[in-house]
Amino acid sequence: MKLLCLSATAHTKNAFAAYLAAFILLVAALLISRPALAEPAPSVVLELAADETAAGDQLFIAAREAFRTGNRAKLQSLRNELAAIKHVLTPHTDYYLLQQGLANQDEDTIAAFLTREQNSYLGERLATDWLKVLAKKNRWTEVAQLYTRLQSPDQEAVCVELMFRLRRPGADQEVLFLEAQKPWLTLVDVPEGCQALFAYLGEYLDDEQYWQRARIMTERGKQKAVQQALRALPSKEQPDAKQFTQLWEKPLVWLNRQKQETLLTRTQKEIVALAIARLAANNPDLAVTQLERWQKSIGREAAAWCWGEIALVSARRHRPEALDWFARGQGTLSPDAREWRVRAALRRQNWAAVRSAIEDMPEEQQSDPAWIYWLARADKAEGSLNYAYDKFRQLRGEPHFYSNLAEEELGLPIQIPPLALPLTPGEHAAARSHPGLLRALALFRLDLRLEAVREWNWAIRDMDDRQLLAAATLAHENHIYDRAINTANRTQFQHDYRLRFLAPFAAQVRAAAREQSLDDAWVYGLMRQESRFIIQAKSTAGASGLMQLMPATARWVAKKIGLKDYNHARVNDPDTNLLLGTSYMRMVLDGLNDHPVLASAAYNAGPSRAQRWRAEVPLDATIYIETIPFDETRDYVKKVMSNTVYYAMLFTGKPTSLRARLGTITPRESMEAAELP
Questions:
Q1: Distance (Å, rounded) from C-alpha 358 to C-alpha 326?
Q2: Residue 404 is inside which H or E element, if any?
Q3: Confidence of residue 171 (pLDDT cuts 50, 70, 90)
Q4: Residue 214 CB coordination number (10 Å)
Q5: How many Cα atoms within 13 Å fall on the side-chain side of residue 593?
Q6: What pLDDT, on the 0 to 100 scale, is given for residue 411?
Q7: What span, in angstroms and rounded, lies between the C-alpha atoms of 411 and 414?
Q8: DSSP-based three-state secondary structure for 347
Q9: In whole angstroms, what is the distance from residue 160 CA to residue 158 CA?
Q10: How far is Cα 458 from Cα 438, in angstroms, rounded to an integer?
């Protein structure tokens, strides 16, 4: 494959020199004014020899299909053709050939591929897959040797290697069992290699660890995972499968059929506790009634866990009783429950309870920026200003929501770091010749986005700041905006926030924002979070395009604004998507008191939910955001609002305040949300 970035002719060399001089002058200006990065000029975008590339791409697509259908002879033939023209994706076809019947492949061929691709994404994938094959063959010494070459082992590989160490003579079983407890307690969908580990552990774990996993999986609503954990109990201690299904699906009916005098064994007591937790997931009040009936019979510790589960559900529903119920579950709270204990205290604006809840967290959990920030706010509310400012200073200098808030608490403006010095021609050239990046670009070109992203992310994993900026620039030049943003986000000391906060489609976005009287910084902040500016982006829920519109929402807005001849095939057209998305943003704003925090929450989770999450009294918007019940929406709103601040600074060159944009959320009763999808 030929890259026609630069021609070797004297004419092109002169043109490049002129371009480079102009580029340096432009960067000098950018160092002063810092506007948002402009669209890349076509002259610097990597272009390929069209005829040769198209032919090679067709061969690769055919090879991929041959791999999918198991046609090895055709795959081998196509691989040879790709190798003859030195197509950049030839190693992928080598990988496909080895993947077909990997367990029976020639081991010298596997070793040669692993040596040749030692630092590549494909090398890591094949090494991971081969390690699992070796484990099935009980070749544990080779498993251990191969594991040392993995640079980013997946969870299954970690389980396999842990299994090897547990089986090794003289192993410190106690230490290894502690290490094995992490996947045991956290994995929901258990891969094959971890299933083998769990089966091995089953001979050594005690009842307490089985029930601990059962409780955690019950909290997450994972029936199959609970049943898998309980099937590992000794047969005489396992709950009846039919009864378990009944208690899971109809816990109140099941509980009302039970008699307290029959609770003689650990299993009988624990499944009553699981039933109460299941009931709490849908009806905390009924769960309270049942727990008060059963708590003496199931024991203090199981009852405390049930109180924590009832409190967790109630806190997510903003029930005022939640904080009191958390107090009855102390000592048994899960990580999620500990976080929601803080949020329940915030919702009641009880700063002493906020402090107590955070200080009761394990040290690792307390170190999260969210809890450092809220503990500082508790210090400030209680008059301990020196302690508060010490904690706020810990959060300074990071481009995230809590750091932004902490800087303003310290009286400092949110700032964009100085722009890194311009990349040299050599740095650009290194990115444009990087094998992993070239493979990723080819995969993006073929619209094989999942594989392309994996290749790209592997290629940049160990890059320094300068290399990351060169790679981000390469992605930007090729209009792969999501990789440009995510790559630029990784820099530690040298930054280009014009790449972190790209503003493509400027003419269309600003025109659409102006038409709807919207802040273009907010529109960009929301789009960046929705799609990373991928035109064809589609979520698992079915949302599409730059502004991630659901089909029903897009049709509803199109009808409301009188867009004629609309059909959903048009949703990925940038102009149509922006028209519908910004129109919907305006409707949501109008229906929610013109408040961008409420509107951002509504855009992600729906207007009725954003309205329902308001309090009956005025609420600091930071507390409103922190107590959004959906993890995805809570994270989304934080990022949208922080994004907006950076876009505003890039667009205007002036400092701006996040706290001023957040403001206060007015009480729920003060208005009704408009009827919106």
A1: 13
A2: helix 401-409
A3: confident
A4: 24
A5: 17
A6: 96
A7: 10
A8: helix
A9: 5
A10: 12
Q: By three-state DSSP, how is residue 259 classified?
A: coil
Looking at residue 669, the DSSP 8-state letter turns out to be G
Rounded Cα gap, residues 60 and 47, in angstroms: 19
Of 538, 521, 536, 525, the closest CA to residue 654 belongs to 521
- Strand-pair partners of 48: 3
538, β-bridge pairs:
544
State phi, psi for 676 to the nearest 5 degrees. -130, 155
CB of 94 closer than 8 Å to CB of 79: yes
Q: What is the structure's pLDDT at 453?
A: 98
Contact, 498 vs 36, CB < 8 A?
Answer: yes
**Ordered DSSP codes for 430-470:** HHHT-HHHHHHHHHHHTT-HHHHHHHHHHHTTT--HHHHHH
Distance (Å, whole) CA 138 – CA 127 = 16
pLDDT digits (tens, 9 = 90+) for 528-557: 999 999 999 999 889 999 999 999 999 999
- C-alpha radius of gyration, the chain, whole number: 29
State the chain's maximal CA–CA distance in angstroms. Answer: 95
Q: In the structure encoding, which two tokens stand for residue 119, read together?
A: 């630092």
Per-residue exposure over 544-559, b if at least 16 CB sit within 10 Å of its own CB, e if not: bbbbbbbeebbbbbbe
- Residue 661: name the closest of 414, 417, 418 by CA: 414
> Which SS3 state, helix, strand or coil, does residue 204 take?
coil
pLDDT at 25: 35
Read off the pLDDT of residues 51-78 as tens digits, 9 standing for 90 and up.
668 889 999 999 999 999 999 999 999 9
**Rounded to whole angstroms, how far apart are CA atoms 342 and 231?**
35
Nearest to 507 by CA among 12, 39, 176: 39
Confidence of residue 173 (pLDDT cuts 50, 70, 90): confident
* Catalytic machinery residues: 530
| AA letter at 588 | V
